[in-house]
UniProtKB/TrEMBL annotation:
The lineage of its organism: Bacteria, Pseudomonadati, Pseudomonadota, Gammaproteobacteria, Alteromonadales. This is Pyrimidine/purine nucleoside phosphorylase. Pfam families: Ppnp. It catalyses: guanosine + phosphate = alpha-D-ribose 1-phosphate + guanine; uridine + phosphate = alpha-D-ribose 1-phosphate + uracil; xanthosine + phosphate = alpha-D-ribose 1-phosphate + xanthine; a purine D-ribonucleoside + phosphate = a purine nucleobase + alpha-D-ribose 1-phosphate. Catalyzes the phosphorolysis of diverse nucleosides, yielding D-ribose 1-phosphate and the respective free bases. Can use uridine, adenosine, guanosine, cytidine, thymidine, inosine and xanthosine as substrates. Also catalyzes the reverse reactions. InterPro entries: Ppnp (IPR009664), RmlC-like_jellyroll (IPR014710), RmlC_Cupin_sf (IPR011051). It comes from Pseudoalteromonas porphyrae. PANTHER family: PYRIMIDINE/PURINE NUCLEOSIDE PHOSPHORYLASE (PTHR36540), PYRIMIDINE_PURINE NUCLEOSIDE PHOSPHORYLASE (PTHR36540:SF1). It is an enzyme of class 2 (transferase). GO terms for cellular component: cytosol. The gene is ppnP. Belongs to the nucleoside phosphorylase PpnP family. The keyword Lyase does not apply.
Length: 103
């Protein structure tokens, strides 16, 4: 899906890692949320509180998922799922434009 219709957007940005990662929260009519974000080059560790679907819209990243020992490099159009209450790592060499859906 390239567009979300009939949503509300939280005006205040979510800013992490000294501004290298930022996102905006999108709220749907049914109360579900997604974040639309952008990562600059760097290495980041994220902790989840809900299950997440991470979709890469542009750029490239490498991810180290919980329980894995090998990094996976992903291009625009690829995605991965992460369980609740875990941590995962992301390496970005240029930029990553992403959408995170909370399930």
């Amino acid at each position: 899906m390239s567009q979300f219709d009939n949503v509300s957007v939280i005006k205040k940005a979510n800013v992490y890692f000294d501004g290298k990662v930022s996102s905006r929260t999108v709220v749907f009519a049914d109360g579900s949320t997604k974040t639309l974000g952008f990562m600059q080059a760097g290495e980041f560790e994220f902790a989840t509180s809900k299950k997440e679907l991470m979709e890469l819209n542009g750029g490239q990243w490498s991810v180290l998922l919980p329980g894995e020992s090998e990094w996976q490099t992903m291009q625009a159009g690829e995605s991965f799922n992460v369980d609740a209450d875990v941590t995962f790592q992301v390496k970005v060499t240029d930029f990553a434009d992403y959408c995170c859906s909370y399930t």
